[in-house]
Specification:
The structure is a homodimer. By secondary structure, chain A is mainly alpha-helical. Chain A is 64% helix and 8% strand. Chains A and B meet through helix 1, helix 5 and helix 6 of A and helix 1, helix 5 and helix 6 of B.
DNA sequence: ACCTACCGGTTGACGTGTCAATGATGTTAA
DNA sequence: TTAACATCATTGACACGTCAACCGGTAGGT
């Protein structure tokens, strides 16, 4: 009986038109939100969100330094992506790389003073932008719901591979 | 009295730790969801989501063709971005460009037969992926909540500039 | 000792996105 | 008429991400 109805919602069918509309709205709006925050951070502080993530991690690290691999797993990036990004940040004087004393063939990433200053200057405007673009847009209940939705999506992503 | 409490939630302060945690979870998870869908589409059909958006719009257009500018505003892209993307799609034989007969200096974008076939082959796997990665991850109430959250965020983004 | 396998990190090629500048062609106002 | 201006589309420079290949070095097994 469950197999007989073409448009049924059993778990193996395609999304309904309504689900699809919500999907598109959701994915496009969250993408737009991300790029709006990106451009706010850019014009406020000349940093990308990637720069910010790296600088944040280094700021909180012992001696404002981390091994490249640890940094990558800490912020959830592939090593290759981090390597490319560190190259660009090094050119701009935000970080430095040097041979790791303790671990052979390990690279230590250091926060420079200009990097630390940039990060300090960026923090408040960035947090303010998050408030304006995300927190202020939603009711407290919606914020909680957003947290639960994110958790459910993340759990499902993890389970699916 | 409202101004006296440092950590209050009046509307001008920075996000709380809890709000910040939810924000990070939300923005990172939605980004991960997008890239997971991107890679599903890539391995199923050798298309990017950009390709898919362009092919979808052209498929639904009169004569499977559109003026470049109309296409750009239809899918919400900058003309520059579309121009770059069409160049890559043209190299792969998915679309063709020609002078527009009616409008001077207008470019007409045409769906090729291989482009149409690619799109037809991509549709079902893509919809299935949306179901598996998004719809199946959430309860029906959460899906509705996601729609409302997206609408609220979008409205706020639009109002803010 | 030697071969292999892994590990940390880098690199190159390429797709993608933004920004600012350009070219080509219409429209408008002095 | 001509100069200013808007519009449509493209281009080049650059940032960013992924993928696969690579390199140097350490560790295990024979």
């Amino acid at each position: 009986m469950t197999e007989a109805t073409p448009g049924r919602r059993g778990g193996r069918q395609l999304p309904t038109a309504e689900e699809l509309r919500i999907w598109r709205d959701f994915i496009e709006t969250t993408a737009a939100l991300g790029s709006r925050l990106e451009s706010r951070l850019q014009s406020d502080s000349s940093l990308s969100t990637g720069d910010y993530a790296v600088l944040l991690a280094l700021s909180e690290a012992h001696g404002q330094a981390m091994r490249s691999s640890d940094l990558a797993s800490h912020i959830g990036w592939e090593r290759s992506r981090l390597s490319h990004h560190l190259g660009r940040m090094e050119r701009r004087g935000l970080i430095r790389r040097q041979e790791c004393a303790t671990v052979p063939r390990g690279a230590e990433v250091l926060l420079t003073t200009t990097g630390a200053e940039k990060f300090r200057g960026a923090t408040v405007p960035h947090l303010r932008a998050i408030r304006e673009l995300f927190v202020d847009a939603l009711t407290p209940e919606q914020i909680l719901a957003a947290g639960e939705i994110a958790a459910a999506l993340r759990a499902h992503l993890d389970v699916l591979r």
